[in-house]
Amino acid sequence: MASDLAGTADKTLAHEMGLDEAAIERRRRLVGLGPEDSKRIATIRDAITQRAEEYAALFFNYLAEVDEARDFMRNRELVEQARRLKIEHLTAMVSGHYGAEYALQRLRLARLYSRAGLEERVFMAAFHHLLRAIGTAAVRAAPEPELGIEAFFSLQKVAFLDLGLMVDVMVAERERLITRQQEAIRELTTPVLQIRDRLLMLPIIGMIDTHRARLLTENLLHAIRANRAKVVVMDVTGVLAVDTKVANHLLQTVAAARLMGAKVIVTGLSADVSQTLVNLGVDLVGLQTIGDLQGGIEEAERLIGYEVFLRDARPNGVAAPLRSL
Amino acid sequence: MSDPQRIAIGRDADIVMARQAGRELAALMGFKGSDLALIATAISEIARNILVYAKRGEIDLSGAEEGGRRGIVVIARDQGPGISNVEQAMRDGFSTGGSLGLGLPGARRLMDEFEIESQVGVGTTVRMRKWVRR
Amino acid sequence: MSVPILRHGNVLIASIQVAQTDDDLLKLRDRLSEMVGQNRAKGVVIDVTAFDVLDSFATRTLRDIAYGSRLRGARTVVVGIQPDVAFAMVQLGLDLGAVSTALDLDDAVAELSRPPSEVGRR
């Protein structure tokens, strides 16, 4: 069931965020929310729940006026789902119970906003707008304005509890999205290209950290198997900041490729960088390097057994074939 | 969480059994491709260490879950002669048992967490953990 | 379990199908050593495609086999190291030294057929 799946996802998120009963208790204490507050909130409960739909509408009408929320509001299904959850939220806010169940509800709503691309500050502005409306209503509905104001202050504590939870979730979700995007970018920037039968090229561009080096190496090794590569031309012209660590990552990649029977020719290693590495004591013995990419590819072809001829310029246009030895 | 699985190490074939069991458990915990090979290799090295230096011991394998991430825990115990100089043993290439020097430091390199406790005349315990990369 | 060792011309091919214990590997080493002499083999191919782990012992034994074969005039090629295994090996710091490697049997046999002068110019 879709709702079950959602429930599981929420619970996993709660687990990942370390939101157990103890953590929620700490959050309640942080905003100063206690049993006294629940009592005060009880006095305005009916006034709020009776108009929950109205308040929810207020929230979304506010968003409709905000440019940044345009994309979110355009998604009818999502907005409908959010509306239902909002009504639930408002009812829960005045329920007097703010434990694990309550927190999970907040997570669900926050995840929805996050997936829809609603930003925290936009959400907070709408929430604030909603709260003001509720505050006004609370004061009016109470037997005495003072009681109403006290009840509202208590409700505000709940609101802060909510904000804390929801913003934390939205931030966590965004970080996860960024991580996924970074992965995708890493994948894109470490392509392994097959430029000839049994010849692969790996142009390495940018910063090489441990994570990226690992990805690079794994991709290359799998490509060697998939393409039955005999030679790999690894071009490091675009590598920024070649230090001992980076050099060792590259050497490891070369070593692993060798274990699979593939020879690696490193191209693009400038004289400067080479000297730096030698000075740093990096052992480059056994590493075959060729200054430029062109030269590297030619050498690779030669190693595999290709001979490349220029097409004959004779009138009868007989071309010398590309042949594999 | 899964119950710890204990593999007695007393002969050659046990090394293979320990690393295969480790691989299976790692796969269950969600480890992929190259991490499976890393874990199996680390277990192989540790198991052999037990066999060579202590003749007998055991390896406990269990899954772990902490702060939303999953992983594998490997604990290798023996009542062997113990290591007099743990620091030296953990240095790459050092060995008294004939070019098996890569065993302990090697295993440490492959795992995320690594602890070793050893007392001469009492025995050695190695605890290693690896977490599923996200 | 005994590893099947086939003869292909003057090349011996050991195709390891099943997980090998340390002892099995040592037995393989000894068998190959004997067979290289008996058959005056010029090449030895060890197929480790089925290996899911190549640890320090296995690596050392492969090097021993190569060394022993060389003493008897045969070159050794190890074939079929899988991507994940190769990765784990370099992480662990293992290497096969001067032992040749190839992707598969075809390449290994081709490698062994190359004239000796080409060897080392890899």
Structure overview:
- The complex is a heterotrimer of chains A (325), B (134) and C (122).
- By secondary structure, chain A is of the alpha/beta class.
- Chain A folds into two domains: 2-184, Globins (Globin-like); 193-324, STAS domain (Transcription Regulator spoIIAA).
- Chain A is built from 14 helices and seven strands.
- Chain A has helices at 2-16, 21-31, 35-42, 45-50, 52-64, 70-74, 76-93, 100-116, 120-141, 145-189, 210-227, 244-259, 271-280, 293-304; strands at residues 193-196, 199-206, 231-239, 263-267, 288-290, 306-307, 323-324.
- In chain A, helix 5 (52-64) packs across helix 7 (76-93), helix 8 (100-116) packs across helix 10 (145-189) and helix 9 (120-141) packs antiparallel against helix 10.
- The longest helix of chain A is centred in the middle third of the chain and has 45 residues, at 145-189.
- Chain B is α+β, with helices and mostly antiparallel strands and 134 residues long.
- Chain B has one domain (5-131): Histidine kinase-like ATPase, C-terminal domain (Heat Shock Protein 90), CATH 3.30.565.
- The two termini of chain B are 20 Å apart.
- Chain C is α/β, with parallel strands linked by helices and 122 residues long.
- Chain C has one domain (5-113): STAS domain (Transcription Regulator spoIIAA, 2-Layer Sandwich), CATH 3.30.750.24.
- Chain C has helices at 22-39, 56-71, 83-92, 105-113; strands at 5-8, 11-15, 43-47, 75-79, 100-102.
- Chain C has a five-stranded mixed sheet with strand order 1-2-3-4-5, sandwiched between helices.
- In chain C, a hairpin with a 2-residue loop joins strand 1 and strand 2 (11-15).
- In chain C, helix 1 runs parallel beside helix 2.
- The longest helix of chain C is centred in the N-terminal third of the chain and has 18 residues, at 22-39.
- The radius of gyration of chain C is 13 Å and the shape is globular.
- The chains are: A alpha/beta (325), B alpha+beta (134), C alpha/beta (122).
- Chains in contact: A-B, A-C, B-C.
- The B-C interface holds B 12-13, 15-16, 19-20, 23, 33-34, 36-38, 40-41, 44-45, 48, 92, 99-100, 102-103, 106, 109-110 and C 19-24, 52-57, 60, 82-85, 87-89, 91-94.
Structural class of chain B: alpha+beta
Beta strands of chain C, count: 5
Task: Report the C-alpha radius of gyration of chain C, rounded.
Answer: 13 Å
Summarize the biggest pleated sheet of chain C. 5 strands, mixed
